[in-house]
Amino acid sequence: MQRGRRSRENEASYRNEIRRSFLTQGLLFLHMSVQEKHLSKVLIFQTLSRFLVLGLSFFTAPVFTRLLSPADYGQLATYHAWISFVGIFIGLRTYDSLALARVKYSAAEFDKYSSSSMSISFLSFVAVFPLSYIFRKELGRLLNFPDFLVPLI
Predict the structure, then answer these.
(1) Cα–Cα distance for residue pair 95/113, rounded to 1 Å
(2) In this structure, are residues 99 and 42 in contact, taking their beta carbons and an 8 Å threshold?
(3) Which helix (H) or strand (E) holds 150?
(4) Are 72 and 80 in contact (CB under 8 A)?
(5) What torsion do the CA atoms of 108, 114, 98, 85 make, to the nearest 10 degrees?
(6) Do 111 and 98 meet the contact criterion of CB atoms below 8 Å apart?
(7) How far is Cα of residue 113 from the mean position of the Cα atoms in its chain?
(8) What is the DSSP string of 86-131?
């Protein structure tokens, strides 16, 4: 009789274990789908914001061409190109990783990550800005810009 009782207990514990396993797997699946939904929202927002930024320059181009002479517009376009190029080195493009980190890490880990990311960008700026200010005349002659614009790049 004890054998029958033990097998029933084992069978009951086995069934409970299977139920817990399915419940755990179901919660993991639910959690993954929430993360995937959040990721898709982040990607859609990032794509739309990128189009908005690029669209602003597209729509303001006719305004600038009417207000500025061709030489001034060429200098403005060159200035924007230099800003884009130098911005890669000053900011180190750490902001691009924040959207993925928001999805990948928990709230506390994301706060640490974003803080580190901003610190790295700031330290890079602190290293480059004094150099651009000290050598503004030489860089201004090299880039064909007025001296006061060079540190603003």
Answers:
(1) 11
(2) yes
(3) none
(4) no
(5) 180
(6) no
(7) 11
(8) HHHHHHTTGGGGHHHHHHHS-HHHHHHHHHHHHHHHHHHHHHHHHH
Query: What's the burial of 99, exposed, middle or buried (CB within 10 Å: 0-12/13-18/19+)?
Result: middle
19: its two tokens: 């139920």
What's the rounded Cα separation, in Å, for the pair 34 and 41?
A: 11
Token pair of 76, please?
Answer: 């403005």
pLDDT tens for 99-150 read 788 878 888 898 899 899 889 989 999 999 999 999 999 999 998 888 888 8
Environment class of 68 (CB within 10 Å of its CB; exposed 0-12, middle 13-18, buried 19+): middle
pLDDT in tens, 9-65: 666 665 666 555 544 544 444 454 555 666 677 777 778 887 888 888 788 888 888
Residue 141 host element (H or E): helix 136-143
